[in-house]
Specification:
alpha+beta, 170 residues
């Protein structure tokens, strides 16, 4: 199936909710195919961001296997995307209007932050985490944060297409 779809998939953009975004193997496959994606993730998804970083890698030794995973300890833990959203300053959010609704334009506030997914402590490339937090709400009200990898800013905001969750995108 993959061989038949490759010519079509090269130009595709993949969008999906957390049922797809929480599947690390799917995200890894999309990345390996060099596809652009925006996938929902659960609010409890943990990422490396800011002061929440893994233990610094030890200097490469002359003996033994090269270390190929990240290390955590009590002081070096990833943060959930919901907790990250709560820590962001209000200035990090920008108002976005995406289309005309039935009675008024559809709009909300979004923030985008570079993070690394912390799944299984495998080293991962940075991705964009896009979080919707409507003005006046006590918490982000959407069920899934939006993570986007190397998608231009306008594409990330336009691409959520009215589904405006926090999501994972490549």
């Amino acid at each position: 199936m993959q061989q038949h779809c490759k010519p079509v998939l090269r130009a595709a953009r993949c969008w999906g909710d957390a049922a797809y975004g929480d599947d690390t193997a799917l995200r890894d496959w999309l990345r390996a195919q060099n596809l652009t994606y925006a996938l929902g993730i659960s609010p409890g998804t943990r990422v490396w961001w800011g002061e929440h970083q893994p233990v610094a890698a030890p200097a490469a030794g002359k003996r033994g296997k090269t270390k190929n995973h990240l290390t955590r300890d009590a002081q070096h833990q990833p943060i959930s995307v919901l907790d990250l959203a709560r820590k962001l300053a209000p200035q990090r959010f920008r108002n976005v209007t995406w289309r005309q609704g039935m009675s008024e334009p559809l709009r909300s506030r979004f923030a985008r932050i570079r993070v690394r997914a912390a799944h299984r402590d495998s080293p991962r490339e940075e991705e964009w985490l896009v979080i919707e937090w409507p003005k006046g709400e006590a918490e982000p009200t959407r069920p899934d944060p939006l993570l986007a990898l190397d998608a231009p800013e306008g594409d990330v905001f336009r691409g959520t297409g009215g589904q405006h969750q926090s999501t994972l995108a490549h």
